[in-house]
C-alpha cells in the first residue's frame, strides 16, 4: 500500500485533534473529488513499519491529546489497501489507549463490503460511506461531502480492545 499524505496533528478530518492518513488508490473516480491526486495506487510513498510506528507514537504522545485516527484517501477499503490498514488498526487497538477512536471514509457502502473489508470495519468506530456525488454536494454537512453519504457510528462498548484498558 502507498499513502499520499500523513497529518500528525489534524483538526479538520473528524472531531478533536487527530492523526490523519490519506491512502493511495481509488477506482471510484467520483466527479468533483477534492483528492484526485490519491487515485493512482503508485502515487505517494510506500507504507511500512516505520510509518506505522510513527502513527502509534503520535497517538500515544501525551504532549498532544489526540482523540484518534482518521483514514481517508484514495480508498481505504480498496482490497489492495485493506491488509495494511487492518494490520495498522489492530496495532492501534493493542498498543494505544482504548479511548482512541478510528474514523474511516469510503466510497463503498457498508452493506456491500466483503469479509476482509468487514474485518477492518469491525475495528473502527465511525464509517462514512458512499461515493461523493457532486450534484448532492452540501458544504453544511458534518464530516460528509454529499447528502447521499451516511455516517455509521458503531457501538464498540463491548469490543475486546475496550476491555483491555
Can you tag this structure with a few keywords?
165 residues; alpha/beta; TIM Barrel
- Average pLDDT, rounded to a whole number, is 93
How far the N terminus sits from the C terminus, by CA atoms, comes to 30 Å
Low-confidence stretches: none
Largest sheet, if any?
7 strands, mixed
Helix- and strand-based class?
alpha/beta
Which architecture does the CATH hierarchy give at level 2?
Answer: Alpha-Beta Barrel
Count of distinct strands: 7
Strand arrangement in the largest pleated sheet: 3-1-2-4-5-6-7
Count of helices? 4
**How much strand?**
15-25%
Helix content: 10-25%
Which H/E pattern describes the elements?
EEEHEHEHEEH
CATH topology: TIM Barrel
User: What integer value in Å does the Rg equal?
Assistant: 15 Å
Coarse shape: globular
Please write the CATH class name. Alpha Beta
Domains (count): 1
CATH superfamily: Aldolase class I
